[in-house]
Amino acid sequence: MKFCKKYQQYMQGQENKKLPEVGLKKLKKILKKCRRDHSHSHSYKASQTCPNQCPVCDGTFFPSLLSEMSEIVGCFNQRAQKLLELHLASGFRKYLLWFKGKFHKNHTALIQEGEDLVTYALINATAIRKILKKYDKVHYSKQGQLFKSQVQSMHKEILQSPWLCELMAFHINLRETKVDSRKETALFDECSLTFKDGKPSLTCELFDSAKIDIDLTCSICLDTVFDPVSLTCGHIFCYICACSAASVSIVDGLKAANPKQKCPLCRERATYEGAVHLEELNILLGRSCQEYWEQRLQSERVERIKQIKEHWDSQCRAFMGV
Predict the structure, then answer these.
(1) Best CATH choice for the domain 223-314 from the list 2.160.10.10, 3.30.40.10, 3.30.2130.30, 3.30.950.10
(2) CA geometry: angle at 111 spanning 207 and 286, to 5°?
(3) Nearest to 237, CA basis, from 192, 282, 185
(4) Phi and psi at residue 192, in whole multiples of 5°?
(5) Count of CB atoms within 10 A of residue 299's CB?
(6) What does DSSP say about strands 211-215 and 228-230: parallel, antiparallel, or unpaired?
(7) RING-type domain: which residues (predicted)?
(8) What pLDDT score does 174 carry?
């Protein structure tokens, strides 16, 4: 079965959830028309890229796809955040959610919803990759890949979402600690935490060879991420390392970072303010790397106490006018 049919079948099965989707049929019709129009042009050579004034590129295909991608990633982030809020709630917070009628799902239902969201993210990422590949094939260009890079810089790429990483960790956490693992769907292959040469990564596979592999080594300290945070560009660091890179104290936090500060990896500006604390990933790594976690906990406690003391000493001096 071709991917387009598989995708349509999947989205039809999700109709009751009213999820936004990639309009593959519509986008393919646009490309078909563009191919037909260009086939009449004798000056169009296989080595050329898509013309700068191509009405398909400038006015129809890319704006339509960008709009759909924005809706998909927005919906995914909102649903994932809500689900994780339910799972991580405790004490009085959990009682409030229950009172409001939001906390009514058992662990099996939570696992199913988390799995569905991961599948939704991966199958849409595959759909976007395939339609951009088809665009480049029709136009003998690399405009599709260029568009993908531009979308990543706009943070509209669903595989960049920190909530995808959190959902994968959430899926593993619930599966291993709450209920027995059941058979996965035909679309979804197991999420897993893997170690290669001592370096951890989160992996997940979808049908049609779509795979996501998230490196969990902090590029600053070169250790497994501890108390991990994801910057808005999608790169993951230890919280204390990210604060150091942003030239802020752990007391002030990443929200206090200067917008001119850049991500240590991609050098993109203004990526700190919207950083997301990856709590599910923190739980997963703490349970999977217990000896390392305990050692890191002890060393970080010393550093955090030191920074907090320095912060309040500075505040006192400022207050006293010293």
Answers:
(1) 3.30.40.10
(2) 100
(3) 282
(4) -150, 155
(5) 11
(6) unpaired
(7) 218-267
(8) 83
